[in-house]
Specification:
260 residues, two-stranded antiparallel sheet, alpha+beta, 20% strand, globular
Length: 260
């Protein structure tokens, strides 16, 4: 057998093996993708599933009722996202947002103030996160991954939200902080001492807009809430995202998300 023939045969076998391995990897990737929660914009037909999700996550006092869910979807259908089990269709996570001005957030005293739907949407590049409900960490990630390229295309720059402070009750009982304001601003190794605030800090919500008593019913937070602001990653390039094909924008956001 000539050396040339040996090389050509080896190349053919190697090429076939590579194609087989690539096909196997693609099939495995497709199977994993099919098993992930499926995120999409919400419609009124999703309300029964959303009500079940609310009941799983929140107390009766905290959960949104049918009327509130309907109002949110009708007011801003492009700012209401859900993630569903691909096998059962069960709602696993939901995210509701609304346009908001910074002055309105700063002036608000409670979650109801922040979440109330305005008769006319303000001219703004900011959003308020009304509610993030999730019983599955992967579903929550899929929500963000789905909405991010849409946020970039629409020019949204930042997001405000209200966070509980579940370590507050114990910190005050143990004398580790004199009041809620001091506890919220306490740091350890540059990070908030409260676990929930630390989580949001790592997700980019690093500006504390205000601390509000009687913000939202939450036992361990003594009903306090903290208004936070976070920048949407890559939002500064909005003029570019307006003209980039959306398929390419979605791929870029997915790629960047793996790095952030």
């Amino acid at each position: 057998m000539s050396f040339d023939l040996q090389i050509r045969r080896s190349a053919l076998v190697g090429s076939w093996t590579a194609r087989r391995n690539n096909a196997g990897a693609a099939a495995l990737g497709a199977a994993r993708g099919a098993s992930l929660p499926q995120a999409r914009f919400l419609g009124l037909e999703d309300i029964p599933q959303l009500m079940q999700l609310e009941a799983r996550q929140w107390t009766a006092e905290q959960a949104a009722d049918e009327s509130a869910l309907r109002d949110r979807i009708l007011a801003h259908p492009d700012l209401c996202v859900g993630a569903f089990c691909p096998q059962t269709g069960q709602a696993l996570a939901s995210l509701f947002m609304k346009p908001v001005c910074r002055d309105a957030v700063a002036a608000s005293r409670s979650w109801q103030d922040c979440a109330a739907q305005s008769l006319r949407a303000p001219h703004t590049r900011s959003l308020f996160g009304i509610s993030l409900t999730s019983v599955d960490p992967q579903a929550a990630c899929q929500l963000i991954r789905f909405f991010w390229p849409h946020a970039l295309r629409q020019g949204w720059q930042d997001i405000y939200l209200g966070s509980p402070v579940p370590g507050l009750r114990r910190a005050l009982q143990e004398g580790r902080a004199p009041d809620a304001h001091a506890y919220v601003h306490s740091r350890r190794s540059g990070l908030p001492v409260d676990a929930q605030l630390r989580y949001y800090h790592r997700k980019g919500f690093r500006e504390i807009v205000g601390v509000r008593p009687d913000y939202f019913p939450h036992f361990d937070s003594l009903d306090h809430g903290v208004l936070l602001r976070g920048r949407i990653p890559l939002a500064g390039a909005w003029p570019l995202w307006r003209v980039v094909p959306f398929t390419l924008l979605r791929r870029a956001a997915n790629w960047a998300g793996a790095l952030l």
